[in-house]
């Protein structure tokens, strides 16, 4: 008996259209077809096999912090991502080095969820 993979991350969002624009345009995630649930939402592809599921109608505040609730996406090149984030007027912190030599950039989505973009050591 074992866990096979992380299938998806689900985020509860207030403004589904603003969140879709952020994840599609700022993070450049590809939209996926979504089953016809009876509540608003959208799905996006993470890498090859993982997904991001946005669930609409959030009314509670988000509690997210880079040392607490966040998720991390390994990216290809922060030298290209940082100017892109600037051009998109994303709320992000300049890159910093982890103790193991990896580089990280932390940003917030429209609801305040923290996302880490990183490159390996």
Explain what the structure shows.
The structure is a single chain. With 121 residues, this protein is of the alpha+beta class. The chain has a single domain, classed as 2,3-Dihydroxybiphenyl 1,2-Dioxygenase, domain 1 (Roll). It has two helices and nine strands; from the N terminus they run βαββββαββββ. The chain has helices at residues 16-26, 78-87; strands at residues 8-12, 30-32, 41-46, 50-55, 70-74, 91-92, 96-97, 103-108, 114-119. The strands form two sheets. Strands 5, 6, 7, 8 and 9 form a five-stranded mixed beta sheet that branches. A four-stranded mixed beta sheet has the order 1-4-3-2, covered by helices on one side. Strand 8 and strand 9 form a beta hairpin. It is globular, with a radius of gyration of 15 Å. The mean pLDDT is 93.
SSE map:
Layout: E1 8-12, H1 16-26, E2 30-32, E3 41-46, E4 50-55, E5 70-74, H2 78-87, E6 91-92, E7 96-97, E8 103-108, E9 114-119
Parallel strand pairs: 1-4, 5-9
Antiparallel strand pairs: 2-3, 3-4, 6-8, 7-8, 8-9
Summarize the structure.
By secondary structure, the protein is α+β, with helices and mostly antiparallel strands. 17% of the residues lie in helices and 34% in strands.
Mean pLDDT: 93
User: How is the biggest beta sheet arranged?
Assistant: 5 strands, mixed
- Total helices: the number is 2
Head-to-tail CA distance between termini = 32 Å
Please report which band the strand proportion falls in: under 5%, 5-15%, 15-25%, 25-35%, 35-45% or over 45%: 25-35%
CA radius of gyration is: 15 Å
Secondary-structure arrangement, i.e. CATH architecture: Roll
């Amino acid at each position: 008996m074992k866990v096979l993979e992380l299938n998806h991350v689900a985020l509860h969002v207030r403004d589904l259209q603003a969140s879709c624009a952020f994840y599609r345009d700022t993070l450049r995630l590809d939209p996926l077809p979504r089953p016809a649930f009876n509540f608003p939402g959208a799905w996006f592809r993470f890498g090859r096999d993982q997904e991001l599921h946005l669930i609409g109608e959030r009314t509670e505040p988000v509690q997210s912090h880079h040392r607490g609730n966040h998720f991390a996406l390994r990216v290809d090149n922060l030298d290209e991502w940082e100017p892109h984030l600037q051009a998109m007027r994303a709320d992000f912190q300049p890159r910093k080095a982890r103790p193991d030599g990896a580089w990280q950039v932390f940003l917030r989505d429209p609801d305040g969820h923290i996302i880490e973009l990183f490159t390996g050591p």
